[in-house]
Design brief:
Layout (H helix, E strand, L loop, with lengths): L1 H18 L1 H19 L17 H4 L6 H7 L2 H34 L3 H12 L6 H12 L5 H8 L11 H28 L4 H9 L4 H12 L1 H12 L8 H6 L5 H4 L2 H11 L3 H28 L7
Helix pairs in contact: 4-16, 5-9, 6-9, 12-16, 15-16
Length: about 300
């Protein structure tokens, strides 16, 4: 009886697949993309456990166990890159996360539809600008010699500020550029969540004499709290990851002590020094830490009564 039930269920599934055959056919290119470019390259992670030789290839290189990890864990530059990555991500998160929510709430209160669309377009635009262009703009603005900002400061009798050559000021410039580039894009999800807030709650609060600020605190923010928690978890899960473009293009030798992050360190090891096993091991370590942070943040969110994402 069980075999007959399983056979019947399988036939039913095959019939349904045949009925939706064109949808499955459209899925094939997507599936092929992920298999070829995402899953098959995962075998390359084994390089982290091998004494990799580019001429022998992945299969021909001898295994070396955890020797590569032991070597990179003893390297001071590796831990410095981790520290810099965490510091830059944490500072960016502390500034951009609440600011994104504030901007979303402000845009939600704009009554003029035309002005709101123009403002959103202006805020979204930097997201589509390449970091190469952003780095060029930052250099023209913040350069100590001839930078627009320092020229204005000099005309006001203030000494030029080394935005790009002093470690502290470089961190400030990096965070500022990141916030400017991504704040508009981050508002999209919050604005979408705000459209789902029940208008009758605002009407009832207005009739009860609640001010606009009170409605914001007691209705708007609690209504999007789950979205805020989800976005925070996703942001925290990327705490060990920084794209290569920003620190590489904005950084220089004078600020290497704070601009050398995991991505740039891996780039210098893998591309410039051809230490492929080391760079692969660092990438694997980074992914494991990110997943661990994701699970920890999700568990904490559930502990305080939120749904989490897993």
């Amino acid at each position: 009886m069980q075999n007959k039930g399983k056979r019947k269920s399988m036939q039913h599934t095959l019939v349904k697949m045949w009925n939706y055959k064109w949808i499955y056919l459209m899925l094939l290119p997507v599936m092929a993309y992920y298999v070829v470019f995402k899953y098959i390259p995962m075998y390359g992670v084994t390089i982290a456990f091998k004494d990799y030789n580019v001429f022998k290839g992945v299969l021909g290189s001898p295994w070396c166990g955890l020797e590569v990890f032991q070597k990179i864990f003893k390297n001071h530059n590796f831990w410095q890159a981790i520290r810099n990555t965490m510091v830059l991500n944490l500072l960016t998160l502390l500034v951009s996360f609440p600011l994104t929510i504030i901007v979303s709430l402000m845009l939600n209160e704009v009554m003029s539809a035309k002005f709101k669309k123009i403002t959103q377009s202006v805020l979204y635009l930097p997201h589509f600008i390449s970091w190469v262009v952003v780095a060029g703009i930052a250099t023209n603005l913040f350069s100590q010699q001839g930078g627009t900002v320092n020229q204005i400061l000099s005309s006001a009798g203030i000494s030029p500020i080394p935005f790009l050559s002093d470690k502290g000021w470089w961190i400030f410039t990096y965070v500022l550029c990141n916030v400017w580039k991504e704040i508009g894009w981050g508002t999209i999800i919050y604005l979408a969540a705000l459209t789902g807030v029940d208008e009758s709650l605002y009407e009832a609060a207005y009739l009860d004499g609640a001010t606009k600020f009170q409605r914001l605190i007691y209705i708007t923010i609690p209504s999007i709290k789950s979205v805020i928690v989800t976005m925070l978890i996703l942001q925290i899960s990327k705490m060990m990851t920084i794209g290569l473009d920003a620190p590489l293009l904005l950084g220089n030798k004078k600020v290497m002590g704070v601009s050398e992050v995991i991505s740039t360190y891996t780039y210098r090891l893998g591309i410039e020094s051809a230490k492929y096993s080391d760079s692969t091991a660092i990438g694997l370590f980074q992914s494991v830490i990110n997943i661990t942070i994701l699970f920890a943040a999700d568990k904490f969110a559930k502990a305080i009564g939120e749904d989490g994402i897993i």
